[in-house]
């Protein structure tokens, strides 16, 4: 047998013998293993006990020693700076963010302004828990209480995280924040919804408030400080004071310098907890920035954070909540307006001016001549054009209005809609009823005419201005109440219209179909128009963004009221179709030149509509304004259109109407005039008056002052 084979056989025989012996004596093997494990465990326990018995003074670990060696200045740093997040649609919140950042830097802190659309909260927000930065959220509420476009994702993530068990209740524990919301209290049910939600969601994730939530109100009537800008200034002042206190290491809302342990702000301390977790209840009557709904959410938020209230304290807690609710009720007690359901206080406060200083500055820069506290006048670009003999607007083509003698004004800069196509870019205030100081109609008309004439006088000697038209322009013959806002909101609108007619000035009034009762109560006007911006409830809501909750019913009722006027011979039914006109870029709207239809597209649309209305036909067009007139066949006499107006005849008829106390009524057919051939649809002039000269400017700057 080879040696290698013998060696393997011998090894196997020895191994087999050893294993057999171990198996036969396995009881002893198990016992030995158990003894060894027991000894190991005993020794470890003894060592651990010895370590715990070391005196407290001898147990400084290395990190603590290092901490002792840190400079005193570094240990005292409590706040490094402020990160300012903004959610903005029109640019107001963005402007506030930049303004706050400048003040923070001036105070010696770091600042960073962040567009919410550029920030990924899933990756970065938890870092704020240890960053020693204060996070400020300036968020506006957009349509239907939804976030602005740039804040949609951030808010969606925050909402989901606040209820997602995978993040947990303490996901943002250690993060310090403050919130300021921008909204309009006229939007009942949606006021500052986004600001409230962001505050609520951050709180649910255990982030700490450094101060109460602020709310800016674009409704100057209800704004605590008169405007959203003033609301922000008041909140910002309080925030900067709180920032300085936090930087000093103070955790309470007062300075901590009260003598003999007696806090002058004791009431606030009793209702607030340590740094940034103040009780959601109202701290005092001086706390102007907290949400009115906070007082009702104290118990809910206590439950949300898992804290327990002793039974003996339950009575006092409930008493505080009850008192807060009673106080809130007393503050807001009032009665509902029959007109629009908006709350009115029993003791009405002194009415504020509609035009705030900031709004006055903005409108003045846009060329408005402001009148009193709520009216304005502006020179239309078509007025300038016709003074030079370069053509008039569609009103001249359709009705014979001389553009150079037309005054564009409004007795109310406020509106009940915030239309996406608004050519004033939402610089005017909004409201659902008149709640401002009111100027008399005589003052408005007098100053409107004076301001208009002064603007016309500025064209004296300007090259190209026709002398005869300059002289005519100083004498106002027409008034277009379509400048901006909702003129029918002005409570003295009928007095204003009568004053116009007494001065032999025709009236062209446009309303946004949200005030049906006011339409019914109107005295006769030369021309009354109701804007129809959409054909369905959903599209009207998206396009006009109305303030009224019952906007659709108001829209239908307004059309019904117009029909009643027609039946009573107090108005005529003619329809104008415009293609949207591009008026420059605006953060308030996403519309661009791509949304402007070609004139031929508008013609095609109106022709299709006319085919479905057997009693109507396209009467006129004004190509330059992308506009057509659809008129009833009653205005077509012997095959010729009579859409122009005999303004002298109208003044005679309205005078008879007033003198007879309204018994001598008349209809539109009583003061019509023949439409010239160049203005009729299908004419080669396409609505341009041949007595003028067409002027086309290359690379012209945008002019948004036309109608």
From TrEMBL:
<dbReference type="InterPro" id="IPR001094">
    <property type="entry name" value="Flavdoxin-like"/>
</dbReference>
<keyword id="KW-0949">S-adenosyl-L-methionine</keyword>
<feature type="compositionally biased region" description="Basic residues">
    <location>
        <begin position="257"/>
        <end position="270"/>
    </location>
</feature>
<dbReference type="GO" id="GO:0051539">
    <property type="term" value="F:4 iron, 4 sulfur cluster binding"/>
</dbReference>
<dbReference type="InterPro" id="IPR007197">
    <property type="entry name" value="rSAM"/>
</dbReference>
<dbReference type="InterPro" id="IPR034556">
    <property type="entry name" value="tRNA_wybutosine-synthase"/>
</dbReference>
<dbReference type="Pfam" id="PF04055">
    <property type="entry name" value="Radical_SAM"/>
</dbReference>
<dbReference type="Pfam" id="PF00258">
    <property type="entry name" value="Flavodoxin_1"/>
</dbReference>
<feature type="domain" description="Radical SAM core">
    <location>
        <begin position="399"/>
        <end position="640"/>
    </location>
</feature>
<keyword id="KW-0479">Metal-binding</keyword>
<dbReference type="GO" id="GO:0102521">
    <property type="term" value="F:tRNA-4-demethylwyosine synthase activity"/>
</dbReference>
<keyword id="KW-0004">4Fe-4S</keyword>
<keyword id="KW-0547">Nucleotide-binding</keyword>
<dbReference type="InterPro" id="IPR013785">
    <property type="entry name" value="Aldolase_TIM"/>
</dbReference>
<keyword id="KW-0411">Iron-sulfur</keyword>
<dbReference type="GO" id="GO:0046872">
    <property type="term" value="F:metal ion binding"/>
</dbReference>
<comment type="function">
    <text>Probable component of the wybutosine biosynthesis pathway. Wybutosine is a hyper modified guanosine with a tricyclic base found at the 3'-position adjacent to the anticodon of eukaryotic phenylalanine tRNA. Catalyzes the condensation of N-methylguanine with 2 carbon atoms from pyruvate to form the tricyclic 4-demethylwyosine, an intermediate in wybutosine biosynthesis.</text>
</comment>
<dbReference type="InterPro" id="IPR013917">
    <property type="entry name" value="tRNA_wybutosine-synth"/>
</dbReference>
<dbReference type="InterPro" id="IPR029039">
    <property type="entry name" value="Flavoprotein-like_sf"/>
</dbReference>
<comment type="similarity">
    <text>Belongs to the TYW1 family.</text>
</comment>
<comment type="pathway">
    <text>tRNA modification; wybutosine-tRNA(Phe) biosynthesis.</text>
</comment>
<dbReference type="Pfam" id="PF08608">
    <property type="entry name" value="Wyosine_form"/>
</dbReference>
<feature type="region of interest" description="Disordered">
    <location>
        <begin position="254"/>
        <end position="310"/>
    </location>
</feature>
<keyword id="KW-0456">Lyase</keyword>
<dbReference type="GO" id="GO:0010181">
    <property type="term" value="F:FMN binding"/>
</dbReference>
<feature type="domain" description="Flavodoxin-like">
    <location>
        <begin position="82"/>
        <end position="240"/>
    </location>
</feature>
<keyword id="KW-0408">Iron</keyword>
<dbReference type="InterPro" id="IPR058240">
    <property type="entry name" value="rSAM_sf"/>
</dbReference>
<dbReference type="GO" id="GO:0031591">
    <property type="term" value="P:wybutosine biosynthetic process"/>
</dbReference>
<feature type="compositionally biased region" description="Basic and acidic residues">
    <location>
        <begin position="271"/>
        <end position="286"/>
    </location>
</feature>
<dbReference type="InterPro" id="IPR008254">
    <property type="entry name" value="Flavodoxin/NO_synth"/>
</dbReference>
<protein>
    <recommendedName>
        <fullName>tRNA 4-demethylwyosine synthase (AdoMet-dependent)</fullName>
        <ecNumber>4.1.3.44</ecNumber>
    </recommendedName>
</protein>
<keyword id="KW-0819">tRNA processing</keyword>
